[in-house]
């Protein structure tokens, strides 16, 4: 029997909810095509489904929305290189549309990777295996990001990914075009992927519809019968040159009253009637009809359309109101995302770029623009990186108002803020607050820390209305002094002032702090849990234990309510794993101290 990895879309990492959705069940591994989903908030935590090996049942948790956007970037890159990558562009685009429609309609905030079944193949503790899977996903996502940033398919070299990422394929193109993956769509759990299967059939040149059990739902009578749209379960049908829509129950959903009709994209579809082109709603009501030569819905759907009149292109909204005048020689495109829009301009080397609200941002290569959605901003915020027509980096609003300029680089963008580097110092920018951390700090490090349980139980000052927003813990270093800084939405706070020599996360809500050359344990509330007197403090891989603490010749295990001499069995297991992994947990010197401790006891 094969061993499986399960991925769930969940409401909370601490318990099962009725709204949870099984997203994927796949043998042995997460296919590389979908690993870009696992980009933000990655943390090791207890499983909520497979809990059969108490207390050793650990998995991973990630934020869904940033993962969708990261995966979209990757698929957009693939789409840009059809000749080298996707052999059947039509099938790729169809699978891409289905995949992102599915992901965007998932109801919950988190993705939970439950690899319990696969982890059971190895005697190594599940917590350790989960941390290794986390590291593998980080490495592969870094490789994917490098590919996208460089716009270079040669970097899709399996040598740059983790061992096993290739999945037995010789190259990425072979993996991408493997029929069993269907460009990533077939990986989605079947029960949620394809309810209500029906079959379009032809008889004597006319088309009908039947259920999978053979029951005829629509007798053959249509001149043409197009495929069902995944999003709406509606299909365009044609009879006597009139177009309309039917559903999978065999009912006419929208009467055959149009001269032409197209699939729904979001809540609207493009139709033609009486020589005019416009949009209809899902219930068949005409939104508008106008004297256009062509209309195309843009992403994100339900907002804007690219339209053409007499060879000139412009933008209208879904009410038919002109947003950009009809003065462009080329179609205005959504860049595959709707984060910004672009149009080629005759006589110009670079396209015109418009924001998500169609404010002009400049003539530049789209590779130089980075869009972000920040808390407090109704629309996107953009970084426009310096290029041949612009000497400095700029951070601007959707209206092209400058928020920040003359910095060297953006280190990382988060939903709550942007980490920025300038003049050999780091600062943290927040929309509406400017710099909440000025450019004073030698390092600001994202600890990539995820807490189990309620965030307010750790930090009561967080307003209730933002407690479920994405958050970040930063280790902030100034003049060799380290502190702990927390950021979520429009709230931020120093949890530990920068007075320590070092800080490192150990366990959910617990940190090791170094002062005067010695280590101690401190909780998120600032309460000192142990004396600052140890030579080293290390995270354990054994459930129920928080850390190991080394002092002189002794080794202690720190638990939530006490500190005891370390037990031989668990300590030996930790040492064995450390050797197997090339001393990745601690160095040989600490290994020797542990061996000496075991020999004495």
Automatic annotation (TrEMBL):
Source organism: Pedobacter petrophilus
Superkingdom of this protein's organism: Bacteria
PANTHER family per UniProt: DUF3298 DOMAIN-CONTAINING PROTEIN, GLR2918 PROTEIN
Any matching Pfam family: DUF7822
Name recorded for this polypeptide: DUF7822 domain-containing protein
InterPro entries: DUF7822 (IPR056724), WG_beta_rep (IPR032774)
Domain DUF7822: 24-150
């Amino acid at each position: 029997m094969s061993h499986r990895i399960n991925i769930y879309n969940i409401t909370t990492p601490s318990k099962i909810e009725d709204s949870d959705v099984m997203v994927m069940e796949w043998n042995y591994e997460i296919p590389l095509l979908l690993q870009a989903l696992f980009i933000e908030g990655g943390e090791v935590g207890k499983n909520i489904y497979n809990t059969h090996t108490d207390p050793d049942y650990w998995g991973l948790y990630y934020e869904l929305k940033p993962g969708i956007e990261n995966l979209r970037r990757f698929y957009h890159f693939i789409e840009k290189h059809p000749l080298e990558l996707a052999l059947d562009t039509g099938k790729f685009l169809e699978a891409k549309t289905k995949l992102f429609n599915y992901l965007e309609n998932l109801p919950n905030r988190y993705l939970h990777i439950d690899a319990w079944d696969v982890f059971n193949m190895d005697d190594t503790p599940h917590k350790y295996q989960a941390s290794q899977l986390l590291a593998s996903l980080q490495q592969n996502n870094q490789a994917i990001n490098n590919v996208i940033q460089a716009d270079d398919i040669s970097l899709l070299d399996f040598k740059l990914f983790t061992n096993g990422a290739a999945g037995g394929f010789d190259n990425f193109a072979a993996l991408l075009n493997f029929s069993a993956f269907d460009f990533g769509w077939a990986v989605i759990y079947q029960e949620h992927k394809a309810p209500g299967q029906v079959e379009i059939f032809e008889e004597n040149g006319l088309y009908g519809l039947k259920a999978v059990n053979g029951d005829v739902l629509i007798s053959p009578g249509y001149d043409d019968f197009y495929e069902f749209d995944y999003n709406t379960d509606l299909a365009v049908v044609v009879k006597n040159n009139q177009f309309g829509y039917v559903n999978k129950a065999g009912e006419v959903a929208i009467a055959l009253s149009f001269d032409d009709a197209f699939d729904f994209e979001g809540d609207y579809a493009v139709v033609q009637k009486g020589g005019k082109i416009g949009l209809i709603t899902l219930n068949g009501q005409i939104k508008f009809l106008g004297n256009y030569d062509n209309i195309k819905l843009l992403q994100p759907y339900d907002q804007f359309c690219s339209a053409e009149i007499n060879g000139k292109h412009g933008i209208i909204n879904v009410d038919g109101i002109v947003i950009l005048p009809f003065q462009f020689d080329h179609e205005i495109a959504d860049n595959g995302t709707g984060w910004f829009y672009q149009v080629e301009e005759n006589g110009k080397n670079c396209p015109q770029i418009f924001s998500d609200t169609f404010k002009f941002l400049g003539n530049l290569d789209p590779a130089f623009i980075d869009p972000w959605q920040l808390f407090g901003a109704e629309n996107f915020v953009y970084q426009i990186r310096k290029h041949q027509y612009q000497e400095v980096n700029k951070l601007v609003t959707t209206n092209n108002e400058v928020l920040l300029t003359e910095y060297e680089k953006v280190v990382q963008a988060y939903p709550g803020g942007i980490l920025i580097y300038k003049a050999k110092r780091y600062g943290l920018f927040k929309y509406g607050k400017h710099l909440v951390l000025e450019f004073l700090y030698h390092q600001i490090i994202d600890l990539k820390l995820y807490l189990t349980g309620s965030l307010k139980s750790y930090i009561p000052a967080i307003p209730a209305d933002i407690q479920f927003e994405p958050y970040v813990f930063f280790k902030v270093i100034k003049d060799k002094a380290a502190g702990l800084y927390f950021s979520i939405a429009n709230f931020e706070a120093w949890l530990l002032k920068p007075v320590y020599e070092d800080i490192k996360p150990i366990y959910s809500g617990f940190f090791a702090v170094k002062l005067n050359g010695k280590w101690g344990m401190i909780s998120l509330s600032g309460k000192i849990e142990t004396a600052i007197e140890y030579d080293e403090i290390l995270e354990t891989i054994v459930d129920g234990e928080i850390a190991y603490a080394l002092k002189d010749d002794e080794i202690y295990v720190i638990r939530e309510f006490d500190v005891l001499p370390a037990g031989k069995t668990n300590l030996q297991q930790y040492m064995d794993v450390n050797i197997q992994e090339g001393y990745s947990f601690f160095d040989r010197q600490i290994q020797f101290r542990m061996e000496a401790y075991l020999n004495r006891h």
